[in-house]
Amino acid sequence: MKPSVKELISQMTLEEKAGMCSGLDFWHLKGIERLGIPSVMVSDGPHGLRKQDEAADHLGINDSIKAVCFPPAVLSACSFDRDLMHEFGDAIGKEAQANDLSVVLGPAVNIKRSPLCGRNFEYYSEDPYLAGETAAAFINGVQKHHVGTSIKHFAANNQEYNRMSCSSDADERTLREIYFPAFETAVKKSQPYTVMCSYNQINGTFASENPWLLTDVLRGDWGFKGYVMSDWGAVNDRVAGLKAGLDLEMPSSNGVYDKEIVAAVKDGSLDERILDETVERILNIVFEYTEHREKQEFTLDADHELAKKIAAESIVLLKNDSVLPLKETETLAFIGEFAKKPRFQGGGSSHINSFRVSNVLDVVSENANITYAKGFPANADIYDEALAKEAVEAAKTADKVVIFAGLPDSFESEGYDRTHMRLPDCQNRLIDEILAVQPDTIIVLHNGSPVEMPWLSRVKGLLEAYLGGQAVGEAVADILYGKCCPCGKLAETIPYKLSDNPSYLSFGDGENVTYQEGIFVGYRYYDAKEMPVAFPFGYGLSYTSYAYSNLRIDKPEITENDTVTVSVDVTNTGDIEGKEIVQLYVRDLTGAARRPLRELKGYEKVSLKPGETKTVNFVLDYRSFAWYHTGIKDWYAASGDYRILIGASSRDLRLSEKVHLTTQKLLPLKVHMNTTLGDLLADERTAGYAADFKKQLEDIFGASSSQDKGDGDVAISDEMNNAMIASMPLRNVVSYGMCGKKELLDMIEEMNRL
């Protein structure tokens, strides 16, 4: 009979237990042959396998195996499709089994705080609800094959500059509402086998040795069961990290930190019980994989087709002034080297050695009448007079022009951030020249993060292909020619210019990065500011049209223990089959806290034939209405009205209804001498105490309902008096002789006992 994990640990030496807490090399965990504990391998990445060849060096810099590059997160999140993301994860899980990989290092769910972050192409969204739902679906797909995922980078890793040492300084409400929920949702809905902690500090403490982060929040609040691994080289103090909840150090430190663990146990500064629990968490995951090995083939061709499907379901049609879809009978000019060499993935640790890459020129129909002109290079910002002239001449004689523009590899990558939001100057210059001779111009973008579009008002068509994976050429061609009806929607806002971004004045700082915008990230900021944007969150066009009707709420009044079901009918009013992404936002009307105008709390993707109507259902719970109250260290929704909004984007809201929430959860009383009468009057528990003071002050200030006011009273309105009374601190009732100080202090003590 196979011994249990606890029995195996009891047979280990102290040195063996310490050794299990760090990698064997760059990609492998240690095994112990005498105890039958195998060494297992982990591998990047979240959108395809970056497993190194068997001859790989210990530094992990040699070539990886040929694999399938699926669309990176920047595009796949635009699918707003849980089922598709589960299918994506399922394929990754099978590929990992076929290649002897125990854990896939992804998905990456850090919030897109700024469009400048060099690694944004690996992250899903600016919205934590969308990021969490997308990640949970992907993780469940992978882990159904007993292959682990490592959701990353926990937490507040939102820039590349100084990411290994800088401190992300944010208040707890901001962390809980914006930067934590994607991880929280994934833990609660899919239990990733591992969590990868980030390099950075959070409010001055490294994530790798932060007990509040790794133990109190991750394990205590959310119930995480797996092990925490470090990002590669993220360990600062190994023993402090172990105590905080960091289980596995990656990669190997050649035994340096293992010796520190052994010494700490021997000198009594580290309880060996903590070490045992750490090893147990690691081994549970190791055996979860090794005891459920599956015989799988590495189905490269089939997975290429899935990569194409994901890309086609995610690409976003941003503008179409009756120029798309293209027709084979039209004379077309395809301009830009991205048409031949599409940029389909980002640089860094997730870079896949793709076994095949399609480009749009190779996959369009042989009957299509297309002239190709390079125009500008795909990998540099160089304006070539001869190439530009050739492109402009081709544009003049074509019925329509499609320009394939985007960001070169050097413009964005892991390891550094962008310094601006512009396309290469050579591209913008050529676009201007082509628009001067050809009004029927369409632009296809290949980029890992939003770009400024100075030509936006003059182009007639715009397709955001982001980084589309290795089948991007086929997916783009199918959408351009109408073989696929576009249905992706933006998982992030595209602002007009970089300085519009809420983090503009604090992004990219060095030692301490102040998250001064707080919870107002992405559309939460732009919508609250009523700021014009190029394209809002959740936006995307189609070749067909949709109508929303018959919004129903099953309970107009709910309590904190209820759920409410929201239903809406969606009809395809066009003449081709398509898919619509229906979005549900909630707005807090109570005024109990400063909150965004609306927040995404539900979405569903529905497929509809021409003329077909389907009902889409959403279920909301107390958390859907709540915000994080730092005073009670919990989620809180005040009693009052909330508006439920249904729409096609954060700014295209078609239907709305109110729901009234009554909560029994009371905020703790903290009455003191400077508590205002307005605060006391607003709380039913203390309103009676303040009512007499209010009446006396009205008499003192002359705040009456009399209409007979002398000239001296004209400047003093009832509104002014009421405002003054509401802001009056309790201490002033002593100053005005309405109450003795001891009597007031006794009253305060009595109120605080309520």
UniProtKB/TrEMBL annotation:
Residues 580-650 form the Fibronectin type III-like domain. One of its GO terms (biological process) is carbohydrate metabolic process. The keyword Hydrolase applies. SMART domains: Fn3_like. One of its GO terms (molecular function) is beta-glucosidase activity. It comes from the Bacteria. Belongs to the glycosyl hydrolase 3 family. This is Glycosyl hydrolase. It comes from Sporofaciens musculi.
